[in-house]
Amino acid sequence: MGLTITEKILARAAxxxxxAPGDIVRVKVDLxxxxxxxxxxxxxxxxxxxxxxxxxxxxxxAVSDHFAxxxxxxxxxxxxxxxxxxxxxxxxxxxxxxxxxxxxxxALLPEEGLVLPGTVILGADSHTTTYGALGAxxxxxxxxxxxxxxxxxxxxxxxPESLRxxxxxxxxxxxxxxxxxxxxxxxxGVAGALYEAMEFCGPTIDDLAMSxxxxxxxxxxxxxxxxxxxxxxxxxxxxLLGRTSRPYEALRSDHDARYAATxxxxxxxxxxxxxxxxxxxxxRPAREAGEVTIDAVFIGSCTNGRLEDLRVAAEILRGRQVxxxxxxxxxxxxxxxxxxxxxxxxxxxxxxVGGAVSTxxxxxxxxxxMGLLATGERAVSTTNRNFVGRMGHPESExxxxxxxxxxxxxxxxxxxxxxxxxx
Amino acid sequence: MSTLRGKAWQVGxxxxxxxxxxxxxxxxxxxxxxxxxxxxxxxxxxxxxFAQGDVIVAGENFGCGSSREHAVVALKAMGxxxxxxxxxxxxxxxxxINLGLLPLDCPSAVExxxxxxxxxxxxxxxxxxxxxxxxVFDFKPLPPFLQEIIAAGDLTAYVRRxxxxxxxxxxxx
Lengths: 423, 173
Ligand code: SF4
Prior knowledge:
heterodimer; A: alpha/beta; Aconitase, domain 3; 2 domains; five-stranded parallel β-sheet; 30% helix; B: alpha/beta; seven-stranded mixed β-sheet; 8 helices; 38% helix; globular; binds iron/sulfur cluster
């Protein structure tokens, strides 16, 4: 009986020949990540556990990204707690805006070469699933789980069933990984992959750029999945080249691996998608959005704040204007992206059309700071969640879309297909 | 683990952690304060009337969304003794175990309990009794491994024990 890529990674980390869905196994972890919202609780638990130190200072990563740069006194104290912990524990990788490399955790760790195929990664954040794009098993956990993993270098896991999602057909103009995953969520629903591993496969995925793969695995958790994963291939190797010199093993699913279900997606003719409030599975094509006027557009986050995303948005905004009464906020996901976007003149485009361009932070994505929505306001956002009150007031509305749709909507002043703005 | 008894409160399917505790409260760390804001926007009546030891009865995918542990902390501080649901979001399920709040998968009980019913739960025997209606529902008790963690109090206590055990072993060597 063959194994899926997820089963292979977990079997290996558990020191077993094979594992089956439903098994509860103890696994060694290769990387543990926490950030300024979840790590403070984790640090308190870590201390209560009586742990003398982290299991390996190279394998525990701390990122101040949610409230950083500090947005209020309480946040400043939380960030200080994380910073002090990183220093006291001698963590090799601590990131914060204003001191060297920084950025939104899930964009940053892959960029820094910290994510390798075949490894087990735990993050105190639900979107840790992002790293599966590089062929790792990566899943989110709570602060106490993370504290235990930081202390022991291991954790317990229930081996998930795997769901095979096959994509075929060439993607049309303006259709991106975000549209693929929104479309998938529309079909599966927010509990469609509960506890399962979502394995994205097929020719469309083989052709997909790494940035799009990250977006897809990022939102696997929106279907309730434990992890999202894409088998490593040429694109993965190219991405890792120059980012890491550490050896890794590119595991892949066996041909006779067992899946809970296999779903086929024909991508030919797929249109840019939008998720309406208040759920990421409430999806329809942008062209069928109707007359949804908007007050704000946010382009950024761990879902779509990468260089490729900014390039598309700038392509649409260049030489045009943001509609009257619409606020545009653009936040590159990491400092490296920020710098490169500056070199390429992208930030100039965003600032030139009157947009607010910020240093990397999660900021508005979770209603933290840097542009919250007021009562009754609507925003098109390139983020991953549009729950009630996610980006501000409980009576505000968030529409999830790709950077292309977001930029086009900023120009038109309502939800728009990029084709309405660019030929 | 001893039996639990309380009044049932109902919530719907796909209750996300933003509904349990809103993002603007995430900079709070005091459990009491978090508990005061639990469910305040999404289920105001529940937030008002909830009493220590009461039980939450939920539909599918309870606790979906963000992995914020604040949600479990807030529920515990509000006095929740147990959550019975048709299914749980996985991270939330883990967080419950780790913080010693009992999560029970039992779709039949969810069907057979109404708001205000008095329920009695035996976690070890795997029985939920609806006292008001005089019906009993069976569920599969948690695997021994997880019961061990809950029996230790929480994951923190469990790890503490393990670490001191390891150090003890080193000293003995
Ligand atoms: S950008 Fe948004 S979704 Fe991503 S880690 Fe930050 S808050 Fe979470």
